[in-house]
Amino acid sequence: MSTSIKVNGLKVYSNHGCLDEEGMIGTYYVFNAELWCDYEKAAISDDLTLTIDYVRVREIAEEIIKVRAKLIETILRKVAIAFKEEFSILDEMSLELVKVSPPMGGEVESVAVTWHEKIS
User: What is the largest CA-CA distance in the chain?
Assistant: First the structure.
């Protein structure tokens, strides 16, 4: 059995981007994650250590997103690696990082990258 845990709408202010102005001004980023695992043992025992702690999901993602990079693809890759290291029961993950109001020379609400990976 594989079930998922979702963390949606984690909002972090950071300064990613290839342009110098992005490094100075910054913008908001929104992070969404769906993490698959078998948490039946956790559900039966009511034991947080047997599932994916969504507080840790937030802490890890937020810490990584706050560190400047040129590409949001780079940030999402780092988050994926950290999740695999932190959560040994992780079977699959789908991650999304949304850059709100990117400077693209026109009105664009957001751009986003996604990462989907089957672990086992």
Answer: 54
